[in-house]
């Protein structure tokens, strides 16, 4: 008993001595506009960037930090959507206590609704990515994500909606850090532009990311909401072209206590027109193609975040996408100076229709340790894609004696794809200068494709093709920061198994390999405004289902597109140097890159051996030999005056390609393979300029130029356009009305010429010249008072909020 009393007295003396030789800081954090307390604001005492003591405010906005050694510090108070507060602390024997009453001021970009949108877009260079914060100037560009992508430095969108980054279409598209079963070209057309918060260009991803995509990753981050009470936003737009197209979306959020409920619904519908021609020189054959797509798609998402306590969050959501499109393709093939009785002018009407449904289900758990930045994430994701395409073909052939032959048949494709992913990610700041990250992932994909055709010339009227992949991977990265120098080293180990099976003759294809994907980043800060970075990564482009399945993607009387089941993966080693300069009124970034590419996957066009006339071609994919690529990009974000800012950018890429093309011999009427070596160079330039008349009205001017490209198979001609727009804000910044006139001079056309497999030229046009009218309205808007959810936008594992 005496021993216990002595121990208690000793502990009391030690505690008393410690208290006498340490300080404390306390106070209250309020919101300046309403003078109401802010709960769960972060309060930290730091010494040269290292956290000495930290905590959060309680429900009344009060805080207290004790047992702080008597030294000099900086007190930081932060809360999302508010300007950070900083002040110096000078503890001594005569000054051991500080008491504050801090009123935080909202950021200028904080809206009272769901979306936090700045007036103009900004560009920021981070350690492994370029981050474009989407402002109102970009959302004015059009209704969907596809409409604004051509305004992003280094990104191009072709007439079919296909993305490319730095001149290369081997790019991986993520939504909130997660892959989607939807084709990127279709996906971008379904996301309203007003739902996008940021766009990340990860041109040289670290080992933390999955290694797919030679040119890198485009990660689209959607708006999230953590406001208390009920609030939301509604956006709608109409695009006037040859016909009107409509889009609308509604985002809703309700947060109370520890529960955050969110949901949204979106719709896009309209008819899109495309047309073009391909002209063969000798003999003269003109192929006119007119395409009309009638699209109607719906998507909705509902979910919930449950804040178990200050350190644990559970999130669940489901995303459903349904579309039902109709495509009409008219192909007219005119053989001028027709003399051969075996050759006919051909007119084909084809119709494609069918529903497509994708369901995604996500469950995520996040644990935040007591140490700042120390986190553990678990996530499971399952998506189920079911699609059916019905096609009808009516082909009429008119011969020299005016006799007409008609062939009518239908075919059908039923496809299912099931994707399951499981992730664990761990981040541990070992100290204020060192960070360790590790994780593991399993991705299991099962696909099945059934093709039935009534084509009387088909060799196999019934086809079944399965393509299954199992990918298991683990990664680790280690980084350290010093005063001016920082580095990050990483490695990803991956086991990849693929099994493909075609029922024709029991043909099978299997591949199984284990690969290491290293990465390295070295960053040096010359000073506070100038940063240099050197990075390296190894990446892979695996053949996709669409590139491998030997089932027609589309068909015209002269061209049929098929996959190649024997494609092998393409591996790329990439080195990049980045320079970033922070200016007083903006920022300047530039980069130079070099890539070494093995077994590059590319398109190929060759004669159809089953066609006796020698006019029909097969379009598919093949692996080319070793290639190299290099390039550079430069972008500037600069505010010239209070009312005028500009964002010019240019990028250039060059790739050495070697492959086999076919050349037609008019004497023998045969196409023979030849090997070609070419250097493919691409140049792009953009200028985005914003003029602010007053607080409510602003104007936009955008110019775009894409230089001609001489390729392995054909040569693409230059393209350019100019857009103008205006935006009007009303109802205390809750409503925005925008108008944009795209391609003012109607100059955007895709033209090309080629000598392979025979001399021909062509040009395709689409509804590039349009007028877009859009409206966005934010409603609700209770102030943020609850626990700030840990943002997951900079990690690969994300969930909760947003649309996908």
Termini separation comes to 65 Å
Structural class: mainly beta
Our Rg estimate from Cα atoms comes to: 30 Å
Strand content: over 45%
Total beta-strand segments: 44
Global mean pLDDT: 80
Q: How much helix is in the residues?
A: under 10%
Number of helices: 5
Verbal overview:
The protein is built from five helices and 44 strands. The protein has 804 residues and is mainly beta. The strands form six sheets. The protein has a 22-stranded antiparallel beta barrel. It has a five-stranded mixed β-sheet with strand order 8-9-13-14-12, with no helix packed on it. The longest helix is centred in the N-terminal third of the chain and has 19 residues, at 2-20.
Defining traits:
single chain, 804 residues, mainly beta, 22-stranded antiparallel β-barrel, 5-stranded mixed β-sheet, 5% helix, 63% strand, elongated, disordered N terminus
How does the SSE layout of this entry go?
Blueprint: H1 2-20, E1 22-31, E2 42-47, E3 50-56, E4 62-69, E5 72-78, E6 85-90, E7 97-104, E8 122-125, E9 130-133, H2 136-139, H3 145-149, E10 155-157, E11 163-165, E12 171-175, H4 184-190, E13 196-202, E14 216-222, E15 229-240, E16 244-256, E17 259-280, E18 285-309, E19 312-335, E20 345-368, E21 375-398, E22 404-429, E23 434-453, E24 462-481, E25 485-502, E26 507-527, E27 530-541, H5 545-548, E28 554-555, E29 559-561, E30 570-583, E31 586-598, E32 601-607, E33 617-623, E34 627-641, E35 644-665, E36 670-692, E37 697-706, E38 709-710, E39 715-716, E40 719-730, E41 735-742, E42 750-754, E43 760-766, E44 770-780
Parallel strand pairs: 1-7, 12-14, 29-33
Antiparallel strand pairs: 1-4, 2-3, 2-5, 5-6, 8-9, 9-13, 10-11, 13-14, 15-16, 15-44, 16-17, 17-18, 17-43, 18-19, 19-20, 20-21, 21-22, 22-23, 23-24, 24-25, 25-26, 26-27, 27-30, 28-29, 30-31, 31-34, 32-33, 34-35, 35-36, 36-37, 37-40, 38-39, 39-42, 40-41, 41-44, 42-43
